[in-house]
Design a protein that fits this description.
The complex is a heterodimer of chains A (371) and B (371). Chain A is mostly helical and 371 residues long. Chain A is 75% helix and 3% strand. Chain A has a three-stranded antiparallel sheet with strand order 1-3-2. In chain A, a hairpin with a 3-residue loop joins strand 2 and strand 3. The longest helix of chain B has 26 residues. Classes of the chains: A mainly alpha (371), B mainly alpha (371).
Chain lengths: 371, 371
């Protein structure tokens, strides 16, 4: 495997995996608070911050630009909250408005910088679309240090954040300040976006936050395992995306990561145990099946009641009369026969066996108790 | 002003108005972020249309983009309806995927043709005058002006023709459903309109500005009126103003026109947000202060009435005591007394307050009201 000994690849793969891990962990909270698109807004809004940070410092080090991005993203999220809270303009409109206006201002500053005689701004626009292949060891260091700090914050405020997310009112009652926790969470998301921008770019950053969380949510109901799983899935898709884009020519890393994430999400939505669509369909089918079995047994019992013997047989036509909507009658009867609950007599006559009549009586009793 | 400049402004104004009047319904139906999703996802439609049609001028681009727009909405709704993730997350999952596929297709297959993501995302309206529409050797003006005028006309006709239906399904979806309108019957045409507008506009102004132009004027108009028809007119006016102001600003600073127009949208919204007559931030603050003062005057009148002709009356009627009794700030207490004197409800001699006949009457009316 020459690929894995390649220095550039190792840097890019490490950086993408780390970013996937951090955005997966932190994105879970945005997802659970129904603020999935906050990341989208923050990432667009970060552009003027990046451009201004460069304009004032003439410095392109990741840390300086990151601070600029974080401040602008923070301002944007405050503006969205303010507009949504203090006017009749709803949250979604406020988000879209701030996102596009901030981005427009960023574009203005960026084009202003491009007209400057020293064209040292070149490379700033990689924040627009992300450019994982341009990642340096210093970038990876920045990602891991800042990501590490935000994980420590997460660890220390875990209990408060957990209560806040599931019951904001209650968290206020027991003495946590919802405002402060809200700020901490927003801050963490701002950080995740700021470090993710240069890899995923403005448009795809939101998917990096939402995707892992949406996939992880389907597999578990516990916050801790969801957050950990989201981090893992994010890391995995970061790694797979980076690998795929190194193996295939002209496959950009950011979109590759997003496609990989989307496959995970689709798989989870379809096949996740207990919640997934396929699982649900199977459960519905099984419920319907058992309901039909019970119906048939009870019907047979009821009809037998008007005769002297419980084992009096009835034709399929009679069963159909009892419950006209039933389908697959013969198949279910065959299955019941195999289990020893009914007995075939003649060509199309069916009767309960002793154990079948006991079963039917039990079903009927349960039905009675329920109604 | 040169003819080329005039043409750019004209394209900008027509595009803005077309976006704004469609955006009104997005904002009111809380679907503002669909504009964000659609304007990004249509990249895929444009790419597909380009591969089939073969050039950037092909009408297949518009068809492909409009179809992808509707697909975006359909996919979002489908995911949303599973109940496995919330609507915001559904949007955040769908459009980055479609956008990513578009980006991958461009860089895998089409990197040797002139179709780059920059142009789609950022647009370049300044080139509009160079692409002319020619018919039988006659110059009919810029092509994008013709396209956007047609789209504006389409939007206007759609809104006028289905005004009643749009209004009903926007403000009272359940009544609309009761009267026999299937929700999708108006939803899908509306989303089709939004997609077509976004496609037409992306060419001129880029997809981010489409979001600004669809949301900001409508959100601003929403703060100025309660009537739907008035709101549409105001949104159109704000959009035209942003286009002209944005162009002027871009010309002055020599920066991106699209960015500058988005910024102008933001400035106009900010002004409305702060200074709108009834729903503006400042008028809300003023109203709250006035209500607080009026309430305090009432309290004062009731207090004076309660202690009239009582032994402790001298003491209770002093300004000093009011500050203690009601816990008013000294300055506020003086303002309350001043207000009450201005209304002619009380007289204040030295520190001693007493009700006038009209003040006594006001208290009686107040008591009557309270009962």
């Amino acid at each position: 495997m020459t690929l894995f000994s390649d220095y550039t690849f190792r840097i890019v793969a490490l950086g993408s995996s780390l970013l996937g891990l951090i955005s997966g962990l932190l994105g879970s909270f945005a997802f659970l608070r129904r603020q999935s698109l906050l990341g989208d807004a923050i990432s667009h809004a970060a552009l003027p911050g990046i451009a201004l940070a460069y304009l004032f410092t003439r410095n392109k080090s990741p840390l300086v630009l990151l601070i600029g991005a974080a401040i602008a993203g923070w301002l944007a999220s405050i503006s969205v909250t303010h507009i949504a809270r203090h006017s009749r303009v709803k949250y979604d409109a406020a988000l879209g408005l701030i996102l596009s206006v901030f981005f427009g201002i960023g574009l203005m500053i960026l084009t202003f910088l491009q007209k400057q005689p020293d064209s040292g701004q070149a490379g700033l626009d990689r924040f627009l679309f992300g450019q994982a292949s341009a990642m340096s060891a210093a970038d990876v260091m920045t990602i891991s240090v800042i990501g590490g700090v935000s994980l420590i914050v997460l660890f220390f405020f875990w209990k408060e954040i957990k209560v806040f997310i599931f019951d904001e009112g209650f968290s206020g009652v027991i003495g946590f300040s919802p405002k402060k926790i809200d700020s901490i969470l927003t801050f963490l998301i701002v950080i995740a976006v700021a470090i993710g921008l240069q890899i995923a770019g403005v448009v795809l950053m939101s998917a990096m936050l939402v995707g892992p969380a949406a996939a992880a949510r389907q597999w578990t109901n516990s916050l801790k395992s969801m957050v950990l799983l989201a981090g893992l899935l994010g890391m995995l898709s970061g790694f797979v995306g980076a690998t795929a884009s190194s193996l295939m020519p002209r496959l950009p890393t950011g979109p590759a990561i997003v496609v990989c994430l989307s496959i995970m999400v689709a798989f989870s939505l379809l096949f996740a145990a207990d919640r997934g669509l396929v699982w649900n369909m199977f459960r519905k089918w099984r419920n319907r099946e058992s309901l039909r079995r019970e119906t048939i047994l009870i019907d047979l019992l009821e009809m037998a009641g008007s005769h002297d013997s419980i084992e009096h047989s009835h034709s399929i036509a009679a069963l159909k009369l009892m419950y006209p909507d039933i389908r697959g009658l013969r198949g279910i009867l065959a299955k019941l026969e195999k289990e020893g609950y009914v007995l075939k007599k003649g060509s199309s006559e069916w009767a309960l066996t002793p154990s079948g009549s006991r079963k039917a009586a039990a079903f009927a009793e349960r039905l009675e108790a329920k109604s | 002003m040169m003819q080329a400049q005039l043409e750019v402004v004209l394209v900008a104004v027509v595009t803005s108005i077309a976006c704004a009047i469609a955006g009104v319904f997005l904002v009111l139906r809380r679907m503002a972020l669909m504009s964000d999703a659609i304007s990004h996802a249509i990249l895929l439609g444009i790419v597909i249309g380009f591969f089939i049609g073969g050039d950037l001028g092909s009408p297949l681009l518009i068809v492909g983009a409009a179809l992808i727009g509707v697909v975006t909405v359909g996919l979002t709704e489908t995911i949303n309806r599973t109940g496995l993730v919330k609507e915001d997350a559904a949007i955040g999952l769908v459009f980055p995927l479609l956008f990513s596929i578009g980006v991958i297709l461009i860089s895998r297959i089409g990197s040797d043709v002139h179709l780059d993501t920059d142009a789609v995302l950022l647009g370049e309206i300044a080139f509009a005058p160079f692409r002319r529409l020619q018919l039988a050797g006659l110059d009919l003006g810029p092509k994008s002006l013709a396209i956007m005028s047609a789209i504006l006309l389409l939007n206007a006709v759609f809104i006028m023709a289905f005004f009643k239906e749009l209004k009903l399904s926007t403000f009272d979806p359940s009544l609309a459903a009761t009267l026999g309108f299937a929700p999708w019957l108006i939803q899908f045409p509306l989303m089709g309109i939004v997609s077509i507008t976004a496609v037409g506009a992306f060419d001129a102004v880029g997809s981010i500005l489409v979001v600004a132009l669809m949301i900001a004027p409508a959100a601003g108009a929403y703060l100025l009126t309660d009537r739907l028809s008035t709101m549409i007119w105001i949104a159109a006016a704000i959009a035209a103003l942003s286009a002209i102001g944005g162009y002027w600003m871009a010309d002055l600073l020599d920066v991106s026109i699209a960015g500058s127009m988005a910024a102008a949208c933001g400035v106009i919204f900010a002004l409305i947000y702060l200074f709108a007559p009834n729903r503006g931030l400042f008028s809300a603050i003023r109203r709250r202060a006035r209500q607080r003062l009026e309430y305090a005057v009432r309290m004062l009148l009731i207090h004076l009435k309660n202690h009239e002709n009582q032994p402790e009356s001298d003491y209770e009627r002093s300004l000093m005591h009011l500050e203690n009794h009601f816990r008013w700030e000294p300055g506020f207490a003086r303002r309350v007394v001043g207000q009450a004197v201005d209304f002619g409800f009380i007289t204040a001699e030295a520190d001693d307050l007493s009700l006038t006949p009209s003040g006594r009457k006001a208290v009686e009316e107040l008591n009557f009201q309270l009962k």
